[in-house]
Write a structure and sequence with these properties.
The chain is mostly helical. The protein has helices at about 65-90, 95-110, 110-115, 135-155, 160-175, 185-200, 210-215, 225-235, 260-275; strands at about 15, 25-30, 40-45, 50-55. It folds into 2 domains: about 5-55, no CATH class; about 95-275, no CATH class.
Length: about 280
């Protein structure tokens, strides 16, 4: 019996069949049900909204039997669907960690061949701005390049300036019609993308996103929105691989020539460790 029924005033917690106040062949409500069919039907008797009687009886051969059959059929169908989903959702055994690490590193670099040839030499060289016959576009691109050079000089270094310029040119060449709201937004998007790919931004990086926004004159506008636009243009989503927790939390661009020497050095060490542990389930 539900415990709250005990607190109802005047409730008699036994069902008597006689009028003498005795048990008279009835049974107490907390007695176990008799052997045989389960008592699935519960009767409640209320007088002026006050519970005065309660009893249970089997549903079979009653006028409510069809309700029980419908409920049983619905429960069976729900269990069958749940079992089917469990079987469909069953995942294959997880690959060993060295294999997963090498797969993720291959996605970071864009291919297994690029991973094989990966080194940690600093980026260098010039990336000339693409020519365009549109004077407004040419001015937009040149201003963004100047802003990125300033950010690299103020917060980072010459190698980062090379990565910025390469990303800017690659983004522009991908589709010159895709222009962000201003040159400052374009510079912020490139900085965010390269910064996330090299773990340069945030508490563990070289500066915060807020400080870069202030330098670009964007104030509270933020970098992530233009950054997502640039990242989508530069990323190859067919190369996606889930990052092992032992790997650095960097964006998967699939373009190692946008990664700084220090970043590629970390990846080279992970590559060599994964190869050395190819027969083990755990990296050293």
């Amino acid at each position: 019996m539900h415990p709250r029924f005990y607190s109802l005033p005047g409730y008699d917690d036994r069902r008597d069949t006689g009028h003498d106040g005795g048990h008279a062949g009835g049974r107490w409500y907390d007695d176990p049900p008799p052997a045989g069919l389960p008592e699935r039907v519960t009767h409640l008797v209320l007088v002026d909204g006050r519970l005065v009687d309660l009893w249970h009886e089997p549903v079979e051969d009653s006028r409510w039997a069809h309700h029980a059959r419908d409920l049983d059929r619905a429960v069976d169908q729900a269990l069958d669907r749940a079992l089917d989903r469990t079987q469909v959702a069953a995942r294959p055994p997880e690959a060993p960690l060295p294999e997963r690490m090498l797969g993720w590193l291959g996605a970071v670099c864009g291919s297994v061949e690029r991973l094989e040839s990966l080194d940690d030499r600093p980026l260098d060289g010039e990336a000339p701005l693409p020519s365009t016959g549109d004077p407004a576009g040419r001015a937009h691109l040149a201003e963004a390049a100047a802003l990125l050079d300033d950010v690299a000089h103020h917060f980072f270094d010459a190698e980062t300036a090379v990565a910025f310029r390469r990303a800017l040119v690659r983004f522009w060449d991908g589709d010159p019609r895709v222009r962000l709201r201003s040159a400052a937004h374009l510079a912020a998007g490139v900085c965010w993308t390269v910064g996330k790919a090299n773990d340069l931004l945030g508490p563990g990086g070289r500066c915060t996103q807020g400080s870069v926004c202030d330098r670009l004159g964007l104030g509270k506008a933020g970098m992530s929105s233009p950054g997502q636009t640039v990242r989508r243009a530069l990323s190859d989503y067919s190369l996606y691989s889930q990052r092992p927790w032992q790997a650095p939390d960097i964006e998967l661009l699939g373009q190692p020539d946008l990664l700084l020497g220090a970043t590629r050095g970390r990846l080279v060490r992970l590559r060599d460790q994964a190869r050395a542990a190819a027969g083990s389930a755990v990296l050293p």
